[in-house]
Structure formats: structure tokens, C-alpha cells
Specification:
The structure is a single chain. By secondary structure, the protein is of the alpha+beta class. 65% of the residues lie in helices and 18% in strands. The protein contains four helices and seven strands. A hairpin with a 2-residue loop joins β3 and β4. The protein is rod-shaped and about 140 Å long.
Length: 299
């Protein structure tokens, strides 16, 4: 099968749903290098990113040797590559990586000796090893991609759970605020009863002392009575001030309770919305978990 026939297969694959689970497709192919057509092995890798895959492929070819990949017109060449998973001897590798929408096409020719290539006619062992080598590279690329996809969806789920946790905390705080303000209102009302009783007693005492003072003759006793009356007036003002503060605290607590009772249902609706989003996102995470397990199970 020639290179252009493989491209036709790629276009056909791209036509179908891009989001569907895709296999890693292998074929024994032909690779055009320069003016020659060399026997090769090709693999179709779904979804992966071109630049990352290209860099990883070059690193794989250069691993274990001082030789460098030379790229010219999209053709990658390395001489004396050490690929022990295929053979114990250095090999020359010629390859192309092409981007075709949602898949990458990688074709590679392994030259074990001058004009002697790994293909079916040279022996099944080296060919099987070469296929396994290329398959493992493709599977690793696809696995890393799906792992990244899964991590991204898991992060989305964690963020949703964090938002829900924050709302749970807010609602709990509002419920606690209602209880606390209820207690405060009860306590302040008890204080008001005592303060109002005290104010009534003070007012009556002041009126009585003023009546007595009005008929007293000037002298030391009247001066003492005047000073005492002044203290009573001061105490009355302090009591009135305390009553005002208590009433303000009650009003403030009542407003806080009203606000909390209004906000709690709103928060409840937001919680329900986030729970629905979490349920949906959990399904997405499970989908990518299944996808990762499927890719890991590729053989």
C-alpha cells in the first residue's frame, strides 16, 4: 500500500465522529524518501498534538546514541540509531510525521544494512519487534494525551466540589447566624425588661425627690438631696442609653435573621445547581477514565 492510500484512510477516519474512541492503526506501508520508495511501517495515532509527538519521536530515535536526527523537507533521518528493542545493532531510520486533523500519521523505515530494510521478507522477528517498538511509542503518546484529558476533567470536578463545599459552609454559617441572633434577641429582650423596670423605678424616684426638694429649705440637707437627684438623673440617662443599645441590637439581629432566611433558599438552589453539575462532571470523568483504561489495554 502506497503513502497516498494511507492518507485516504486517514481522511475517512477524520470524517467520522472525532470524539469517538479511536484505535491505533498499523500497516506495512511504503515511504517516499527523496526519489526512492522504501518499505516502511506506519501507525495512525489519534488525537495527539503534533509538536509534542514530533519532539518525543526525535528524542526516542536519539536516545542512547550521539547521532542526531536530521530533518529536511519533512523527512527525518538518523544514522546509527541504537534501538535495542528492535535489534542489538545500530540502524538507520527514515521517518515522516504528518498531521491529518484529529490523527497523526507516522511512517518509519528501518535500515539494518545498506539497502537492507526491516520488512516481512527479511524475517518476522525483527519486523514484529519493529512493530512493537512503533506501537509502544504510539500507545505512550495516546496514553499521555488521555491522562492529561482526564486530569483536566478531574480538576473541573474538584473545582465544582470546592464551590459546593463553599456554599455548604455559607449555608451552615447562615443557619448558625440565625440561631446565634435568636439567642441574642432573647437575651436583649430579657435585658430590656430589667432596664425598663429600672427606668420606671428611677423615673418615679426622681419625681418624688424633685417634689420633696421643691419644699425643702436651703441648707446642707437640701444640697445633699440635690446632688443625689443629679446622680439619679445621670443613672436614668445611662439606662435610657442602654435601652436604646439593646433595641438597636435586637433590630440588627432581626435584620440579620431576615437576610439569612432570604439567602438560605437562594443558596439551596445554587447548591442543587452545583450538585447537578457535579453529577454531570462525574459522568465525564468516568468517560475519560474508561477511555484511558481502553487505551492502556491496547495490544
Amino acid at each position: 500500500m502506497r503513502l497516498k492510500s494511507t492518507f485516504a484512510l486517514l481522511l475517512l477516519l477524520s470524517f467520522f465522529s472525532i470524539k469517538a474512541q479511536k484505535p491505533i492503526i498499523f500497516s506495512e506501508d511504503s515511504l517516499k524518501i527523496g526519489n526512492g520508495l522504501l518499505p516502511s511501517i506506519s501507525v495512525v495515532i489519534p488525537e495527539v498534538v503534533y509538536e509534542k509527538t514530533l519532539n518525543d519521536w526525535i528524542k526516542t530515535l536519539q536516545s542512547g546514541t550521539k547521532s542526531k536526527v536530521v530533518t529536511e523537507n519533512g523527512e527525518m533521518t538518523i544514522f546509527g540509531a541504537i534501538l535495542k528493542d528492535i535489534t542489538e545493532f545500530p540502524v538507520n531510520a527514515y521517518s515522516k510525521l504528518l498531521d491529518r486533523d484529529s490523527v497523526l500519521y507516522l511512517a518509519v523505515t528501518f535500515e539494518v544494512k545498506k539497502d537492507q530494510y526491516i520488512e516481512r521478507s527479511t524475517g518476522e522477528t525483527e519486523l514484529s519487534r519493529a512493530k512493537a517498538f512503533l506501537f509502544n511509542f504510539a500507545k505512550e503518546q495516546y496514553t499521555e494525551l488521555v491522562e492529561d484529558q482526564l486530569k483536566a476533567e478531574q480538576n473541573k470536578l474538584r473545582n465544582l466540589e470546592k464551590e459546593l463545599g463553599s456554599l455548604d459552609k455559607d449555608k451552615s454559617g447562615m443557619e448558625k447566624s440565625i440561631r446565634s441572633n435568636d439567642k441574642s434577641i432573647t437575651s436583649e429582650k430579657d435585658k430590656l425588661i430589667a432596664l425598663n423596670n429600672e427606668l420606671t423605678s428611677l423615673s418615679a424616684a426622681i419625681d418624688e425627690h424633685r417634689r420633696v426638694l421643691s419644699v425643702m429649705e436651703p441648707g446642707e440637707e437640701k444640697d445633699e438631696k440635690t446632688a443625689y437627684l443629679k446622680d439619679l438623673d445621670k443613672h436614668k440617662k445611662q439606662t435610657i442609653k442602654a435601652i436604646t443599645k439593646a433595641e438597636n441590637r435586637i433590630s440588627k439581629s432581626e435584620r440579620a435573621i431576615d437576610k439569612a432566611k432570604t439567602d438560605i433558599p437562594k443558596t439551596g438552589k445554587m447548591q442543587d445547581n452545583f450538585r447537578d453539575q457535579i453529577d454531570a462532571q462525574e459522568a465525564v470523568v468516568q468517560k475519560f477514565t474508561d477511555k484511558l483504561n481502553t487505551v492502556k489495554a491496547y495490544r
